[in-house]
Amino acid sequence: MVITKIGDLSRRIALLGAVLCCLTACTERLDVQETFVGSCWEKVDTLYYAVSSPGTVSLTPTIFFTNDYSYRNLYLKVLVKEENILLADTMLQQVFMDEMGVWSVPYQGGTYRVAYEVQLTLPPTTTRIGLVQYMRDDALCGIESAGFRIE
Question: Helices in the chain by DSSP H: which ranges?
Fold first, then answer.
């Protein structure tokens, strides 16, 4: 009787493992990060990535700053394109430093980390998601890297 229960338990664990593997394989997750030469993000440097997850996705743009960043906030644009057609243009903005220059975001290893959250609805075709800095300066210095996670 004990052997049968252990066998049943083993089968259930194996079945649960197979279901979890299937669910994980069916969910596309993209995690990308680009590092900028000289810690400057040029306005013309739009970061584009191909995505083939139709429906609503959670997008988390993440930016890593140094103390050399000269603003209290950052405007970003998230672009969704299908071939050369712009489908969505979402503006994101976040204030992460007070008037005295004190950061209000996590600091680790010499950099500050700022994350945004946005929900996007993507078409059933392969699309490109772009991330661009949308500040006044053509070269936005003090930014080590930028990227995003899609789930």
Answer: 2-26
**What beta strand segments (E) does the chain contain?**
30-35, 40-42, 47-51, 55-65, 73-82, 85-95, 107-108, 111-115, 118-122, 127-133, 139-141, 143-150
**Which three-class secondary structure state does DSSP give residue 53?**
coil
**Cβ neighbours for 122, distance < 8 A, ≥ 6 positions apart:** 51, 53, 54, 55, 56, 57, 80
For the chain, the maximum distance between any two Cα atoms, rounded to a whole number of angstroms, is: 74
Q: Which residue has the higher pLDDT, 17 or 121?
A: 121
Whether the CB-CB separation of 87 and 80 falls below 8 Å is answered with yes
Tell me which amino acid residue 122 is. Answer: L
Does the pTM surpass 0.85? The reply is no
